[in-house]
From TrEMBL:
Occurrences of domain NAF (ranges): 304-328
Residue numbers binding ATP: K59
Protein name, entry field: non-specific serine/threonine protein kinase
Keyword Hydrolase: no
SUPFAM superfamilies per UniProt: Protein kinase-like (PK-like) (SSF56112)
Reaction it catalyzes: L-seryl-[protein] + ATP = O-phospho-L-seryl-[protein] + ADP + H(+); L-threonyl-[protein] + ATP = O-phospho-L-threonyl-[protein] + ADP + H(+)
EC numbers: 2.7.11.1
Matches recorded under CDD domains: CIPK_C
Length: 435
């Protein structure tokens, strides 16, 4: 029987024909299977989409542990970053679900498991090492082109699909260009000790792209050798080896591969090889097939509402599911609010008309019940309500109010309108936001 998650508001044991409860039903949408992995803050389960039969991996993250550890920003960033990444060699984030106690990442299931498990059984041939390194660089280069740096690349975070192709996962420590300080560098100390770049140890700031290249070099060494280039039971001794670039090649390493790895594990980030240079290196390009995909098949557009909103907009368009609302409650944000509703657009607009008129506002509908405009109180309150289709059963309602310094807008919204519109909010959202 799968390990239970102690979250009564989102999982339901399902009784089978013989009276047992082997199946755990999550949100009425997924059947949870075996536990795939367990960390300090999360558990990862194999699951099946009840409607489609698709296998997925679900990472259940404890809100309480995240809050206590001060890692709220990391989880928000991981969701935001994974939403932006659509590449054949990166694990796809399908949707995010949340309740009062947990956040669930529903992800593409990598049937082949961790690359670490495979290399732990024995080193790879040079050709196989090259194949996986090429796929790794394809993914890393894609991330860098979008201003995203992983910062925790290692074989444990590299998964294999049913075709034994590589998939980069776990963006929990990743960073974006905007996090760089005034010197243009990142300063957060992070990563796995054996894979950490020497400039991180120097604590003077670092280039996220150069750090990822270093860890890619360590990974390539591991694939070819079957063990780490820098390793010692004494952590400080290991760090000194990393800082000095003190490692030896196994005797079977070809001269071309030695030369290439030395460019990756260059302790000077200024002279270390870049991703663009990697793509031109003779050792790397041997048998290389560039990953071709059409961006429109992978990228999510925040601007295109004609196609309907996707599952991620449950996060970004709802006060219960937005990235801050995953952890806390707010009554009003930027003089407005977003929420998910199971009511029809017509019913929502009609209810808004009823409530608006009851507090002395003039309400003007938009065409096709797509929203409304509210005005009143001698021009002290103006708000626009827009309705977007999310799924067949759900819509996202966005309320934008004109900000005033006198506090009247907030008072009208918070004290008069919002309480009377609460009945429109989908109950799952209310569970999430703790209301």
């Amino acid at each position: 029987m799968p390990e239970m998650m102690n979250d009564s508001d989102d999982i339901t044991p399902v009784t089978t024909g013989d009276g047992s409860t082997d199946i755990i039903n999550l949100f009425g949408k997924y059947e949870l299977g075996k536990l795939l992995g367990c960390g300090a803050f999360a558990k990862v389960f194999h699951a099946r989409n009840i409607g489609t039969g698709q296998s997925v991996a679900i990472k259940a993250v404890s809100k309480q542990k995240i809050l206590k550890s001060g890692l709220t920003a990391n989880v928000k960033r991981e969701i935001s970053i994974m939403r932006r990444l659509r590449h054949p060699n990166i694990v796809k984030l399908i949707e995010v679900l949340a309740t009062k106690t947990k956040i669930y990442f529903v992800m593409e299931f990598a049937k082949g498991g961790e690359l670490f498990t495979k290399v732990a059984k024995g080193r790879f041939s040079e050709d196989l090492s090259r194949r996986y390194f090429q796929q790794l660089i394809a993914a890393v280069g894609y991330c860098h082109s979008r201003g995203i740096f992983h910062r925790d690349l290692k074989p444990e975070n590299l998964l294999l699909d049913e075709n034994w192709d590589l998939k980069v996962s776990d963006f929990g420590l990743s960073a974006v260009t905007e996090q760089a300080q005034s010197d243009g560098l990142l300063h957060t100390l992070c990563g796995t000790p054996a894979y950490v770049a020497p400039e991180i140890l120097a604590k003077k700031g670092y280039d996220g792209a150069k750090v990822d290249v270093w860890t890619c070099g360590v990974i390539l060494y591991v694939l070819n050798a079957g063990y780490l280039p820098f390793n010692d039971p004494n952590l400080m001794v290991m760090y000194r080896k990393i800082y000095k670039g003190d490692f030896r090649y196994p005797k079977w390493t070809s001269p071309d591969l030695r030369r290439f790895i030395s460019r990756l594990l260059d302790t000077n980030p200024k002279t270390r090889i870049t991703v663009d240079q990697i793509l031109q290196d003779p050792w790397f390009t041997r048998g290389y097939k560039e990953v071709n995909f059409y961006s429109e098949n992978f990228d999510l557009s925040d601007q295109d509402n004609d196609k309907g909103l996707n599952a991620f907009d449950l996060i970004s368009f709802s006060s219960g599911f937005d990235l801050s609302g995953l952890f806390s409650n707010s009554d009003i944000s930027d003089c407005g609010e977003r929420f998910v509703s199971a009511e029809s657009p017509q019913r929502i607009v009609e209810r808004v008309e009823e409530v608006g008129k009851s507090v002395g506002l003039v309400v003007m509908r938009k065409d096709d019940w797509a929203g409304a405009r509210l005005e009143g109180h001698n021009g002290n309150f103006i708000a626009v309500l827009e309705i977007h289709r999310l799924t067949e059963k759900l819509v996202v309602v966005e309320v934008k109010a004109m900000e005033r310094n006198d506090g009247i807008t907030e008072q009208i919204w918070k004290d008069k309108l919002r309480p009377q519109l609460r009945g429109l909010i989908h109950n799952a959202v209310e569970q999430v936001s703790g209301n």
